[in-house]
Amino acid sequence: TLKLGVMASGSGSNFEAIARSIDEGELNAKIELLIYNNPEATVKNRAQKYQIPSLLLNHRDFSNRKALDRAIVEEFKARDVEWVIMAGWMRIVTEELLKAFPQRVINIHPSLLPSFKGINAIEQALEAQVKITGCTVHLVDLEVDSGPILVQAAVPILPNDTPETLHQRIQIQEHRIITQGIAIASALQGS
Ligand code: GAR
Fold first, then answer.
1. Residue 155 — very low, low, confident or very high, per pLDDT cuts 50/70/90?
2. Average pLDDT rounded to a whole number, residues 113-121
3. Is the pTM above the cut of 0.90?
4. Which of 1, 72, 80, 181 is the most buried (most CB within 10 A)?
5. What does each C-alpha distance from 119 to 44, 90, 145, 187 come to in angstroms?
6. Cα-only R_g, the chain
């Protein structure tokens, strides 16, 4: 049983996809703790629904990125977390987190990396007028939105797509590949 720590900043539909596949026996894992950084993030309601402990670490309460990451590491280590999942975590992470969990931090990004890194990946894809975009689950390294790719899914861009309609179709794929990515990463590591 993989011990997961999840980090999220928003609605938490990817968090819920992980929780649901654990409940349904598709992923042999347990979410030990959800950390969210934004008091308004509705992901906390989803954690409640699944009776998963959650903790607000508001980035505004920390003097810099490293200090926030040190607090995250402390909380996850206290619960023996083995794998860290960034499920819509909208903060840049530092070596404080990556050194504590080497090759064990997983991110989901709403584009086919290495295209459209950074924020607004969906808007970037629409502006570039590509016909296919998608989502990527990858291991995190120190450069933003880079690191070994675990799974990708392609999503066509339709003529009348808005950022919202495209994001909805990308999220359907995200919810499928996030749990696949966790399973693949743990199989590669042998634990
Ligand atoms: C997801 O679409 C994820 O790919 C994206 O945030 C969304 C979170 O949705 N992540 C990034 O943009 C990371 N830079 P959710 O809160 O419903 O899971």
1. very high
2. 97
3. yes
4. 72
5. 23, 8, 10, 30
6. 16
Q: What is the mean pLDDT of the chain?
A: 97
**In ligand 1, which atom is closest to the CA atom of 15?**
18
Quote the distance between the C-alpha of residue 159 and its chain's center: 28
| pLDDT class of 180 with cuts at 50, 70, 90 | very high
**3-class secondary-structure state, position 4:** strand
Binding residues: 12-14, 65, 90-93, 107
Per-residue pLDDT band at 190 (split at 50, 70, 90): confident
CA dihedral 13, 16, 18, 24 (to 10 degrees): -130
**Helices and strands: H and E segment counts in the chain:** 6, 7
CA of 17 from ligand 1 middle (Å) equals: 12
| Ligand 1 atom nearest to 11, measured from its CA | 16
User: How far apart are the C-alpha atoms of 152 and 147, rounded to whole Å?
Assistant: 13
Is residue 159 a contact partner of residue 178, using CB atoms and an 8 Å limit? Answer: no
Mean per-residue pLDDT, 169-181: 98
